[in-house]
Write a structure and sequence with these properties.
Blueprint (H helix, E strand, L loop, with lengths): L2 H7 L15 E4 L16 E5 L2 H10 L4 E4 L14 E4 L6 E5 L4 E5 L4 H10 L2 E2 L11 H6 L16 E8 L4 E5 L7 H5 L6 E9 L1 E2 L2 E10 H14 L2 E7 L4 E10 L11 H15 L3 H13 L4 E6 H5 L7 E9 H18 L7 E6 L14 E9 L5 H13 L3 E2 L9 H7 L3 H11 L8 H7 L3
Parallel strand pairs: 2-4, 3-4
Antiparallel strand pairs: 1-2, 5-6, 6-10, 7-11, 8-9, 8-10, 12-14, 12-15, 13-14, 13-17, 16-18, 16-19, 17-18
This protein binds flavin-adenine dinucleotide.
The site of flavin-adenine dinucleotide has 33 residues, from strand 3, helix 4 and strand 10.
Length: about 450
Amino acid sequence: MDRRSLLAAMGATALMPAQAKQKNVSAHATGWQNWSKSLPPQKAQIVVPDDAAALADIIRQTEGGVRPVGSGHSWTGLVPCDGAIVKLDKFNAVGEVNVAAQTAWLGAGARLKDLSPQLAEKGLAFRNLGDIDVQSLAGATSTATHGTGRALPCLAAEIRGVRLINGAGEAMEISAQENPDLLPAAQVGLGALGILTEIQMQLVDRHKLHRRVWFAPYDKVLADAQQLFADNRNFEFFYLPFSGMAMCITHNITDAQDMPRAHDESDDGVMQLKALRDWLGWFPYLRKKLLAAAIAGAPEEDVVGESWQLLSSARNVHFNEMEFHLPVSEGLDALEEVRAHIEKNRSAVFFPFECRMVAPDTAWLSPFNDGPRMSVAVHTHAPDQYEFLFTEIEPIFRRRGGRPHWGKLNRFDATDMRAVYPQFEAFAKLRAQLDPAGRLLNPYLRDLFGPA
Ligand SMILES: Cc1cc2nc3c(=O)[nH]c(=O)nc-3n(C[C@H](O)[C@H](O)[C@H](O)COP(=O)(O)OP(=O)(O)OC[C@H]3O[C@@H](n4cnc5c(N)ncnc54)[C@H](O)[C@@H]3O)c2cc1C
């Protein structure tokens, strides 16, 4: 008698291996890795449930635990597990829309880029988006994905309700009508409270944006940054390492005529930065001179279009990234310290550093729940080593009161998280209530939410 029949004969609930055939589920072999391939290939199968009942069965019955995945665009160990990696690709519909309240129930597995045009048909749009929009709605909100804008919060802050299957395999709604106290916990949930099937989002009127992109000396941008954040709906800038120059981007609402955007050349630009690094990494003076010449000839943008078509763009050159969210008073100094350190010690770096601002919200695990924060990000080309981000860059961010992006490289452990999130313990307690057997825990989350 095999183990499953033995357990069944004993009247126990047998845990199914991920390979087991279930109704209303498609499963395929994996080797799953995240987008940059910084995480090792996984043995767990990828399973795609057709409906909530099948999802509940997977959570209750899969041996080795279950983790939801969106587009796999996170670097932290949130997804790897031994049992099943669950994709919510079939949960991708636009559900009930309340045009007057500008809210909509949206499939949790839907990609942001697929939702935007459907929302536009109903006269609605996301208030803000990040650099890319290929993430799933649940994946993006679960790690507090953000764009930039002094008055614009992260995407999770726009959640008005969620429907989920919790770790015990039970369906739950958390919204203004049901379990409203739990909403701030569910907004940034890391996939640790349950697997979200639908999310009710607060939206805004469909709108057009005027996008401007220009280059300016880095010192001037640092001096003007606070004003630029104050004067523009969306402002961000990228420092081009070893160049002394920054690229500034603003977006503001407009009714002006569309002005089409030329082919997005940002990937080509990154590869030019790489070429200069490869040829001239050891000759910083020459590298700076050639960078300045290249930047002087770089096209600036002045275009008008639909918000979602301008805010996000493709990122085809793969990289690894660390981003910390800093108190606004520390952000620019942190960036400057990182710049000075890298230009002195790390000539291999060529990806631009990014600086953004995010408005506050009230989600328990939102990095922005104690006031607005300035987000500073450092990227390294995927094939390059990035250990120095942990040993040399993270200490700068830590010293200045930074909270790490939940999806991006960091070495914060449970003690560190407890120290920076007053509601961490409350979240851990709720997690244990909603998933008493730890069905949704993997090694990364067990380390975070294990016993204090
Ligand atoms: C090229 C690139 C650009 C990026 N740009 C930005 C940016 O501009 N701003 C920013 O803030 N971040 C950015 N990120 C980070 C990215 O937005 C986050 O890591 C986000 O979580 C990825 O979404 P995903 O759909 O790939 O989710 P995944 O990485 O697959 O999963 C993220 C988390 O969501 C959970 N999850 C997924 N689906 C569900 C579900 N149905 N129910 C419950 N939990 C679920 C997972 O378990 C995991 O904990 C970028 C990443 C990359 C690679």
